[in-house]
Amino acid sequence: MPIKQQGYKTSASFAAEIDAHDSLKKFREMFYIPKQSNGEDAIYLTGNSLGLQPKSTGDYIEQELKDWETLGVEGHFKAKNPWMSYHEFLTEQMANVVGAKPIETVVMNSLTVNLHLLFVSFYRPTKERYKIVIEAGAFPSDQYAVQSQIKFHGFDVENSLIELTPRENEFVLRTEDIERTIFENGDSIALVLLGGVNYYTGQKFDFERIVKAGHKAGAIVGFDLAHAAGNVELKLHDWNADFAAWCSYKYLNSGPGGIAGVFVHERHSESFDLPRFAGWWGHDKETRFLMDKRFIPMRGAEGWQLSNPPIFQLAALKASLDIFEEAGMKRLTEKSRKLTGYLEFLLTEIRDERISVITPSAETERGCQLSIRVKNSDKNLFKAITNKSVIADWREPDVIRVAPVPLYNSFADVYRFAEILRACL
Ligand SMILES: Cc1ncc(COP(=O)(O)O)c(C=O)c1O
Question: Which single residue of 21, 37, 245, 274 has CA 20 to 30 Å from 140?
Answer without folding.
Answer: 274
